[in-house]
Design brief:
By secondary structure, the protein is α/β, with parallel strands linked by helices.
Length: 233
């Protein structure tokens, strides 16, 4: 958190347009950071999330919203970028077991690397990412061990890390929260959840399918938080 609120520190915030990353951006802004939102157009089939990211960034007052295109469709091996079918109707036990086909190879490594490059160019020491290690779908690049390792690498492999006045920090304020905790935090921060998008396989009109892992986790979070999801009400 900035030591002097009158002089906000810059931060790069990865923003997918989903509930978690949007809450993370809202929290960083509440903490007094001048936030630069970064979204990645990685060839995802779900284009709605990029539209959501733009709406969220504008609504929250990000200093800038940058979209970088990196086509990961060429790599295949993910239901989010190829013709592999998105799983539907899985139980909580199934969702929490193993790495799902919606995993995109090295996605968070790539995203954090781009965020790191922009942060270094901006003179920002803080990078926010909305990863979560509790109510998540088994992604290995959402674990604390991965984040800690990336932060060490960032400080070893950049001029900012080696010569800069401040150590580069990867901020993960949601990592130990349940999905219900994230929903409650979003509500506390005044985030307009109507602007967010979580579904892996929305319909032609952009409405969530209600059956994929992301939809089920979001629904579970709202119910346990005692709140109504404005996207399905």
């Amino acid at each position: 958190m900035p030591e002097n609120p009158a002089v906000p520190l810059r931060a790069v915030c990865l923003l997918s347009g989903g509930l978690d990353s949007s809450t993370c951006l809202a929290l960083a802004i509440r903490q007094g950071y001048e936030c630069y939102a970064l979204s990645i157009d990685y060839g995802q089939k779900n284009r709605v999330e990029l539209e959501s990211a733009a709406r969220v960034a504008a609504s929250l007052g990000a200093a800038r919203h940058l979209v970088i295109a990196v086509d990961l469709r060429m790599l295949g091996q993910s239901a989010l970028t190829s013709e592999i079918e998105v799983p539907k109707g899985r139980s909580s036990a199934e969702i929490g077991q193993g790495i799902p086909v919606t995993y995109v190879p090295a996605r968070n490594t790539i995203f954090l690397s781009l965020a790191l490059a922009w942060a270094e160019a901006l003179g920002a020491a803080d990078i926010f990412i909305g990863v979560n290690a509790l109510d998540y779908s088994g992604y290995p690049d959402c674990r604390p061990e991965f984040i800690e390792a990336f932060e060490r690498m960032a400080n070893l492999g950049t001029r900012a890390g080696v010569e800069g006045p401040a150590r580069i920090r990867i901020r993960t304020p949601l990592i130990d929260l349940t999905k219900a905790g994230i929903v409650s935090l979003a509500h506390e921060l005044g985030l307009d959840c109507r602007l967010t998008h979580s579904c892996y396989d929305p319909g032609p009109d952009g409405r969530p399918c209600g059956e994929c892992d992301a939809c089920q986790l979001r629904s579970k979070g709202f119910k346990e938080a005692g709140l109504v999801d404005p996207l399905v009400s």
